[in-house]
Amino acid sequence: MVHKLSLLLIVVLLVLGCGNGKNNENGSSDRTSTVNPTTNQNIAVDLVQGEGTCYIIGELVDDCPVRSPHQYQGPTQEEGVYWSYHSYQGPQPTEWYESPMSYQLVKNGELPPLEARVPPPEDRGVVQGPDGIGEYGGSYRQTGEGLYLGEWMLGTWAIRDSNGVDWKPWIGKSFEVSEDGRTYTMKLRKNLKWSDGTAFEMSQIEYAWNDINFNKELNPVVPLMFRDPVTDNPVKFKVVDDLTWTISFDTPVYNLFENRSLPASNCQKGSFSFYCHPDTKQYHADYANPDAIKNMVKSSGMQDWTQLFTFKNDVLVNPRPCLSAWCTTIIEDTRVVASRNHYYHFFDPEGNQLPYADEAMVIAMQSRPAAVFRSMNGENDGQTSPFYLSEVPVYNANLEKGDYSVYQWPSTGGNDAAVVLNQTFNEDPFIGKLIRTRDFRKALSYGINRETINDNVFLGAGVIQSWAPHKSTPYYPGDEVANRNIEFNIEKANELLDSLGLNKTDAEGFRLRTDSGRETEPIMLDIVMYGEGEDLPIGELVSDMWSEIGIKSRIRLTASTRRDFQKNIEYLTVSLDFSAYQANPWAVEWGGMTTLRSGSLIGTAIGEYNETRGAKGMAKEPDAEYLPLAPEDTFPADSTGNLRKLNELWKEGRAYKYSDPRRIEIGKQMFDIFAEEQYAIPTVGFTATIRGIFLNRNNVYNQPKTHIRDHNGFHAWTYFFEGGKDNYHHIDNRSSVKKSYTFMGGT
Question: Rounded CA gap, 737 and 29, in Å?
Fold first, then answer.
């Protein structure tokens, strides 16, 4: 049955959402009629408070800088097509403009003029949003459970466009890979500065690589991304000149700038960085006074200097200078505020320095339902994190009151809710043997009615399939693979289970164990999960379905699910968003299809061995404790050898470009193997589970209607408020132009 708490939550939210909050007296019953969300309206809204006024954060002022013409008209946003922020091909702006906030600081002598703050015109970036030229002012507010602002905080060398595939220079001026795939060359922007005015220089990149990335105390293990797939050697870092640096591999590696986890300026233990602010040296043992470091470690209660270094560089604990559009300035228990970076180097096509909004903030509620209620009351300017597809009817019922729209941003990965089996589990050797037996996994798959899951948990919006990326992607393996081993077929499931010798049952019809001394006990599968979202109703449905094929199971909720997997003491879970970012298998090094990282759910001990280069985890040695026996050239838990095969294919694929025929062939082969093995039994894809339902206030512009799943969009720093008037400081503010839209039902 569908999880009762989920139904209760929907009822509670519906009552709260419809029964509370003031109605806008100017609102009308036809307010939710649809404005086509796929049409670029290029709305250049005049400042609503009158000529010569502007907003600084939430305050209306009349001492404003010169305003750009607001005449640029960009391309039309097409239905179902990802908006490209980096597609501007027009002339370089000849006039440059700054925000009223920056203007006032310059006027008061607290900030240098714009031309002194940013790179020369040829080194400035220009992006365009789907609604054209924006207005300055306001605080872009998110309301959720946690305090994560968005991926745009990271300030990586390159940034993804809204399709999640195309990478463009961001902090860096350029990046390119040599023809032989061995060397990446990066160039800096001239006169780029950190948010505190410190010049961004090559010495900070050298410091990051030589003293942080390759420091054994901070990074005892070089990440897979920066190890050669053939020799396993770390990359080689080299400075070419004041504006150019390189990293080199021993053999061809083409996927570095496809990687979602591209380093930035995190500068913390266990994290590679491309650059670090020089003031972090005061916490680094190689630079700071030893006595000073010792005293800081002791007074802060840290264990050693590496822990202190990490703590001081955590942008959600300590405000830090940054290179992004906004930088954290206020950090409280339930609120984080990031303020405008006046030195930011990106502009719009008319030469307006970005971002448009003066601040970005996140407010943490005590619970997800509280965050959802607040959002439906209009207290969220644009976010995905708290929202579930199953609750969209509730969100739709409150469109008018909250003055927002609802968009779907699904992942193209194709395996949104996987029933994952950890192949290296052997705490119970009999259960371990079962989950390492391919036909047992197939039987479990045949015992799942995916239509029931799709209809009851995902409102019928998902696509029932095996793990296969979207058909629009180059790695789609074909319809046969996408539909393999997923039909609901109790007869076939029973035949497979009987063929494994599991044909004896107890009085209730549950199949019995066959290991010595426990022949009278039913097989019991323990499904562990967080149970905080759609995983719980899916788990309950699956558990009920498996009882129909004689497999008994029970659900245990625990906050330590992933940790218990990594300890190899658990083996079965429902993993939401299992295929995130993995329509391209080389987009993440921690992907669910391989066992190359310790976080691999399908083989945690193998992943730990590969990540630590053999220092920990499961060794490649025969071990009769693990059944069925594996081939000699692989790990004991790899009963068919295909875990090793998947790792080898992934490593080989790094040697080819994204669209190379051999890379595409390898990608399709990997999905083929996974469909056959069912290490992570798929249910549905393309549902928009986890960061895929985007609620956006109607008076916030430049957000794309089509975007890959994300917290709030990779280019939230281009969003702007109608007339520059925000919602955080003006609680009754509503759009005077846009009407509400929802992807599910239109109105």
Answer: 15
Percentage of residues of the chain with pLDDT beyond 90: 88
From the list 700, 702, 687, 683, the residue with the least C-alpha distance to 744 is 687
- Exposed / middle / buried, residue 95 (Cβ in 10 Å: 0-12, 13-18, 19+): exposed
Cβ–Cβ < 8 Å for 133, 348: yes
pLDDT in the model for residue 111: 98
Q: Which of 16, 38, 13 is nearest to 706 (CA)?
A: 38
Question: Where would I find the beta strands (DSSP E) of 469-544?
Answer: 524-529
CA distance 349 to 92: 7
Asked if residues 580 and 601 have their Cβ atoms less than 8 Å apart, the reply is: no
**167-169/158-160 β-pairing:** antiparallel
**What digits encode the pLDDT tens for the residues 35-89?**
333 334 444 444 344 468 999 999 999 999 999 999 999 999 998 999 999 999 9
Structure-derived torsion over alpha carbons of residues 474, 480, 485, 488, reported in degrees to the nearest 10 = 110
- At residue 398, the pLDDT reads 96
* Complete domains list, the chain, with CATH: 4-10+32-148+323-409+691-724 (3.40.190.10), 172-312 (3.90.76.10), 417-685 (3.10.105.10)
> Is beta strand 404-408 parallel, antiparallel or unpaired with respect to 346-347?
unpaired
Distance, in Å, from the CA atom of 98 to the CA atom of 94, rounded to the nearest integer, reads 14
Which strand (E) or helix (H) includes residue 404? strand 404-408
Helix orientation angle between 450-457 and 535-547, rounded to the nearest 10 degrees: 150
- Residues 711, 718 contacting (CB under 8 angstroms): no
DSSP class of residue 742 equals B
What pLDDT shows up at residue 15? 44
327 and 110 Cβ atoms separated by less than 8 Å: no
Residue matched to tokens 């602010």:
277
Look at residues 680, 668, 657 and name the one whose alpha carbon lies nearest to residue 469: 668
The edge-to-edge listing of strands for the beta sheet with 404-408 is 382-383, 693-697, 404-408
pLDDT in tens, 671-702: 999 999 999 999 999 999 999 999 999 999 99
Alpha-carbon distance 283 to 312, whole Å? 8
Q: What phi and psi, each to the nearest 5 degrees, are found at residue 283?
A: -115, 10
Mean pLDDT of the chain: 92
Residue 543, amino acid: S
Q: Is the CB of residue 394 less than 8 Å from the CB of residue 10?
A: yes
* pTM, to two decimals: 0.92
Element (H, E) at 338: strand 335-340
Max CA distance (Å), the chain: 87
The pLDDT, as a whole number, for residue 151 is 73
